[in-house]
Queue: 2 jobs
Job 1
Amino acid sequence: MSDGIGMTGRTECRPWRLTLALAGLILLMAGCQRAGMDHPPADPAPAPPPEADEAGQLVPGQERDRPTLPAQQLQGGVLPVPHVDVTGVDPILHARVGQDPHLRERAEFWATFWTTRSRGHFERYLDRMGAWEAFVDGELEARGLPASLRYLPIVESGYHHSIRSRAGATGLWQLMAPTARDLGLTVDGVVDDRRDPVASTRAALEYLSLLHDQFDSWYLALSAYNAGPGRIARILQRHAPDPAMPGDERYLRARAHFPAETREFVPRFFAASVLASDPERFDLPPVDPSRRVVFDEVVVPDATSLDVVASAAGVDEEEILQLNPHFHRGFTPPGSERIVRVPQGRGAAFEVAYAEIPASERISFTEHRVAQGETLTHIARRYGVSVAELQGANGNLDPRRLQVGQALIVPIGGAPATSEAVQVAASNENSENSNTQPTIHVVASGENLWTISRRYGMGVTELRNKNGLSNSSTIRPGQELSVANGGVRVHSVRPGDTWGGVAQQYGVSTSALARANGRTPGDVIRIGEEIRIP
């Protein structure tokens, strides 16, 4: 992240406004504090969560610098309860447990923190929220879940669809891989559905619903979402074992024994709900509904590169990548029908164009036959991919079951390639006659016209025409193809160069430039490195 917790936008705080605005968390019945309810003392700042500067929590060493609340805010009115649905009553924010003094005090702390030192971060959360709020609201309504859960991604990820915590939790809802798989999401070397705002939202809401059914309390469900249901169940068994006790009361009794981060989780959720439900009251920018992401959904029957999707839809590849961040290798998985998103209004055009692309030319991959003594690690290194990506492309292949002669799909989209074909191309490029003689490509096993055309920044039609091939022609290993005429342009990376800057300089797309070099736009380029210009 480029800016730390202390670097915010506006830092002016209006205590009178916060005091007046924070009034309703005690609109609940006044006598709800019962004998036997354990209320822990105010916690110190929690241990830093993953990606602290994007999750809006404190980082190590800043505890002593926490913003403090004026005394009158602790004695008089406190956080208002936002009206987040048509009835004005939310089963989380309007529950009686919301009167708990400790919860109110910690919620005030976070409200102050997000409107002072971390204001800049919270403004970005609200901006990103505009992209997916309408979709999340629709999913909540369809399931009959509390509308206030729309604010949970603020606490979890700042509404960032692909952020990853130090513990490995990923996406808008910060799901761990085992939990995501249990909920039916795919997490492997090719696809990570946790990065998909649509699929992850549906899975997270299903999970929250299951947690509520298990604990009969939204407060316990939220705590279990953060700490894990097994851990919360064990704490309850020890410190609030009576199953006849109302779930919210069990939460209050056992809360002191929750992990520090989990004790802070519900107050942070309350504070985020207050601020995001009425941001202008706190001089925060309103959620912008015009940021809403809209798209068409199309179905691809098998492995397909996202640049093929972009070409068929008639849009830039970057648009497809932004709409489909869960295909993190740049293609859909082999042997699986998948939904892919294209910009709104492009679905019909895609279906027509995609049907005309031969199945053999829809994906950038090659085939590798396992040789004696080879392991997945050896093969992955040879092709410049990770073992996880190699496993994911082959149905989560067990490396212990690798057999000599076995055919493996090797995803090469976006990966540095070291195949014979690329070595031949490099040799031709470096020859002194490369500026005047055609470059020859020797077809390797598993290659097709699409993978070859991608290598050299050509279109498939151009490659066919250059080699006198018809639409029905096939190519075979060892066949020589002419892939370029004229000079090969090379750019030597200078200080300050980026993929986008170099692409603009030469009038090519960023994705095409990276692809021509066997890379992705996210890869680092170094000063002095030579980049091939397609």
Job 2
Amino acid sequence: MSRTKQMIALDVGSRSVRAVWVGVRGGRPAVTRAETFSLPMDEEDPHKLIAAWVDKLGIAKQFCAVALPGSQTVFQSGRIMHNDPRSPEQVAAMDIAQFNEMAGDEMAHDVFAFDTPFEMGVRRYIMSMARPASIQEIIQATRRNHLRPADLIAAPVALYNAMETLAGQHDEPYCYVSIGHAQTEVAVGVSNGLLFARSLAAGGKLFTDAVAQSTGLPAVQAEVRKHVDCGLRESDACCEPLRLAADRWVSQFNACMGVYRSQFQDRKFTVARIIITGGGAQLKGLKEYLAAKLFLPVQHVTELPDIDGGYKPYAGVYDMAFGLAISAMEQGKTTLSLLPGDLKDEVVFREKKPWWIAAAVFLAGTMALYSATGVYLLKRDGALLDAERDQLRRREQIDKRIQEFRAMQAITTTNAQPLTSLLINGPLAREVMTLVAQTVDPEDWITLFCDEKIYNPKEQDVAAKADTPQAAVRNPFSLFRTLRPAAATPAAADKKEPPPRKDLVDPLSAVFIAEGYTSNPSLKSVREMIERLKTSPDIVRVDLRSDDQVLAPTGIPELEGEKLPNFRRFVIEIEVKRP
């Protein structure tokens, strides 16, 4: 739920009802107004009295934060490792499935995760759960009190948020105890979040009954006298009966803390201090008696050093209501809400309704302005669009002509490549051809002399590059080479003109291929020819590129009567320095 700057909270107890108005001042929550209404002990339907009191305060039909008793709430604590990819909601979903199976009902729940100051690599989480029937009962009671629920907070969570706001910074776990008339709320937590929460079925009524049994007074008068002259000190009246009642309360509290110690066995989680509040905590000598029995420092909330002067008059009385308000405002350390989702949406809607109305009016005016502007712009842009279409058609015609010229240029370049190579390498090829003719053995034949780029077909791959001028194709049934024009493909309109090929003219050397036949099966004459070529100062490198045996042809009647010798075909690669 979104943060609000002001909240009303209603703490409905068995003996009194407390309402507080909490706002944010200087970044901190502060009580701006507080009201108390005492309930008679024998009243069967207190909702009529509370509704009349709410109408008198002028807050009827307004949203307020209410508490769900801790006795109707189940809390589950656990750990999440930092390397665990699951979110707290996913971890809680597994736990809630088990509780739903045990309870036989779909439990409403919420989860909150936080980092403890003394655990590395571990996140703690706490989940609050309640039956839908219990939640609906509290919601119906709130409506009977002429109020609307803004948030539903478990009482121990509200107690922790209130006390943690007042207690200041601390590293050790603190135990916060709110002693009400019929039950006691217990919350244990650190500065970052709530660790443990429970509710005890014992409260100030134990002490009232002890005074009534000791004095024989009615419950109403015993309640009054309990706060006048009774207490747990030696000099107080009804000391012994009150101590017996306090021992019963301490035994239940120790059982509750035993559950806490079983869940948090590390010594770092040992409770360092107990802070008490509520009407039952006002009994004289109770703080000192609990400290002696529990062997822990016990403080009343009014003794906390961090309480400022603004909240001092409300400490010890309005703590639960104050905790409800700051929890609903999301100003507390732990955020756990059990309000159903549809009611949360209603709260958000009511809170944002004025802004949404203003936004709707502004949006309607804006849409009207945009519509009128759009009609004008459509008429104006229509004429511009027609003119641009005419220009586009003319540009398409120009682009088409450009593509035709580029295709013609590609064909011309392809056809001119043999002539270009001939003009560039012609004089050098003549000299190399003369040198080959002078060094070849008289019994051998040279049948082909050409440039290496024409002889090597992989340098003329038409399919790989469309801009290659020509491709040389070897005919396996002939000793000659044929030139095939490259397939000209029209370039895309947005393709850049390819740069001129630098491999057509090598500024350092040229490579030629000489192919021929020899009748010497050992290729001795060919090797001698290579050695003679290497003696030339213009020759950089001479290699025998390949050789294979040529068999006599069969199936030709003209040659069947003649006995032809077996020849070996050889291919020599000659690299020559350019002058």
